[in-house]
Amino acid sequence: MLPILYLATQNPHKVEELATLLQGQFELRTVKDLGLEEEIPETGKTLQENSLLKAQFIAQRYQVTCLSDDSGLEVEALGGAPGVYSARYAGEPKNDRKNLELLLKNLEHINQRQARFVTVLTYHEQGQYFQFEGEILGNITLQAQGSGGFGYDPVFQPEGESRTFAEMSLQEKNQMAHRARALQKFKRFVDENRKSHDI
Hints:
By secondary structure, this protein is an alpha/beta fold. It has five helices and six strands; from the N terminus they run βαβαβαβββαα. It has a six-stranded mixed beta sheet, sandwiched between helices.
């Protein structure tokens, strides 16, 4: 019987990516299964803080094993923006299209378009918290390309690639993306922990 893991995110796209990568290791559930309808607070100043806050919110309220995710796009020419404010770059309410349009507008006359996507996962189990980070370097394209993915995927072109994340299948994206890299570290941690408990 697989251990139950609650995904502490309300973003259905993140749930889909996490579920695809964690299949077979956990019985996955979402915060909807806990009956949570309110927004999980994101008041941290860094991705690390926000990821921890989300995990603590779920763990303390429901006493469950959970995994939270906070991810952001950091553009070098914009001093690391949108960063921790990636989901709300164009203001409230969250709107992927408006965020993307504002980013392209702010980069309109800038040739240096290096960026990186970063994910910070926080795992809670029995009162302990562990964090795992993943990143991928790339560039921001001049315009949106592709219809897949979500968020800034249509304008993020990973290093060495001619396509954006939005032009790739979920399987292709998951072979290289920031969230997948953080999850690989998490999965190794879980595997090692399980082995040590079996000894």
